[in-house]
Specification:
- The protein has one domain: Alpha-Beta Barrel (TIM Barrel), CATH 3.20.20.
- The radius of gyration is 18 Å and the shape is globular.
- By secondary structure, the chain is mainly alpha-helical.
- The chain contains seven helices and five strands; from the N terminus they run αβαβαβαβαααβ.
- The strands form two sheets. It has a three-stranded parallel β-sheet with strand order 3-4-5, covered by helices on one side.
- 43% of the residues lie in helices and 8% in strands.
- The relative contact order is 0.12.
Length: 207
């Protein structure tokens, strides 16, 4: 822990928000665990460890929690536990349709979004979560270096797809105080100008 805080000092950073690499930026790698009970336990253990990091981070390290989005009743229960642990936000899958689940504006997610809003838990969509779609955007036949460059660019495109759908799907109107965060995407909300679509989005909805 002290080593990480030392790096922040070297870089002149006061605080850091931490995202899960091993579990996937969208928590999608948890689905590699076929046993549903073990999968949920693993998510809980991760959050316990995240709370420990935050507690020892001297108010400078803020790991984001993971939720078992594959199981809505369990996810809702975990949201309350995440709140009780004092964690400051969650990471979320931005393309559940690729995993056989409904799109995020479907009523399937209603209890989940309602609980996030009620508990004032921000929802993070990390740019790295769209890696699978980003790979599909790139044409075949690229050299490794060109593919890496093209995939890196397409990650931004995929993340903007998520932002666009959040704005236009009606999800924000249904949950007006729920905050979404577009992580490492370089987007500015004021660069989205719906124009004739007549869409107005308050800045706190997607940033």
């Amino acid at each position: 822990m002290n080593e990480r805080l030392g790096v922040l000092d070297q870089l002149g950073l006061s605080q850091s928000i931490l995202y899960p690499n091993v579990g996937g930026f969208a928590s999608n790698r948890f689905l590699d665990i076929k046993d549903a009970e073990l999968r949920n336990i693993t998510a809980r253990v991760y959050n316990d460890a995240a709370a420990e990091v935050q507690a020892n981070g001297k108010n400078r390290l803020f790991p984001q929690a993971v939720v078992p989005f594959w199981d809505i009743p369990e996810a809702v229960r975990k949201l309350q536990r995440i709140k009780d642990l004092g964690l400051t936000g969650i990471t979320m899958c931005d393309t559940p349709e690729l995993l056989g689940l409904p799109y995020l504006h479907d009523t399937h997610w209603g209890p989940f979004w309602a609980t996030c809003e009620e508990l004032k838990i921000p929802v993070n969509f990390h740019i790295g979560a769209g890696g699978e779609i980003a790979q599909q955007v790139v044409w075949e036949g690229y050299s490794p270096q060109r593919r890496l460059a093209a995939t890196s660019v397409s990650l931004f495109i995929v993340q903007f797809r998520t932002v666009m759908n959040l704005i236009l799907s009606g999800l924000l109107e249904r949950y007006p105080t729920l905050n979404f965060i577009s992580v490492e995407s370089g987007h500015r909300l004021d660069s989205v100008r719906p124009g004739s679509a007549g869409v107005a989005v308050r800045r706190n909805h997607a940033r």
